[in-house]
Amino acid sequence: MYKCNRCFDREAKIIVTDEGQERLCNRCFNDMVSEEIGVMLETMPEEIVVNDFSGTRRDFTVQQRLYPNGIFLEAVEDLEYGYQYSVHGELDCNQTELFHKLVNKVKLNVSKRYTKAGEFRNGQKYLSIIDDEVGGRIDYDDSNPSVPMVVVDGRPYTWEQLGEMIMRFEGFQFKMNFFDQTDEVE
Ligand SMILES: [Zn+2]
């Protein structure tokens, strides 16, 4: 872990390459941008806790980031390959409303369920897609960098597992749409 070049305390997460290189923590980065553009970030809750489609508690850490082109809020679940959502607002937006937009996005999405696990009579387990659609996030698979990992229903599926799940649609047509992380998925 690299420590922030300004506060020498928190973990550096952002590299700024403006006149040399500086590694900054999220807070010092925001302070720097805030000074430059004269916009202040408001204090907001650092955590969101919601229950998912099965009633399971899901804990998210909220991260605020200020950029010259807007405010970016991100809710990242406190586990590897968990849920992750973000929203973007204009610099002069109502930040409380933006936070509520993030909370609503998290709530809406974790209440949806796309996959389920089942068991054949012989005891063999299988995974399946409940209806005729599946959505989630494309992530990186450390153990197999040549194919993506997909996060669906707040858990990781290997590319092969996804393949197994869609095999029952053999002969069907399909369409893939990709959405920026701050967009609403239709
Ligand atoms: Zn710092």
Mean pLDDT: 94
How are helices and strands ordered from N to C? EEHEEEEHEEEEEH
* Alpha carbon gap, first and last residue: 38 Å
Count helical runs. Answer: 3
Helix-residue proportion: 10-25%
Main sheet, how many strands, which sense, barrel? 4 strands, antiparallel
What's the β-strand tally? 11
User: How would you describe the shape?
Assistant: elongated
Q: In words, what does this structure look like?
A:
This protein has helices spanning about 25-35, 95-110, 160-165; strands at about 15, 20-25, 45-50, 55-65, 70-75, 85-90, 115-120, 125-130, 135-140, 150, 155-160. The strands form four sheets. The protein has a four-stranded antiparallel β-sheet with strand order 3-4-5-6, sandwiched between helices. It has a three-stranded antiparallel β-sheet with strand order 9-10-11. A two-stranded antiparallel ribbon has the order 1-2. A hairpin with a 7-residue loop joins strand 9 (about 135-140) and strand 10 (about 150). It has three helices and eleven strands. The model has no long low-confidence stretch (mean pLDDT about 95). It is an alpha+beta fold and about 190 residues long. Bound molecules: zinc ion. Zinc ion binds near residues 6 and 27.
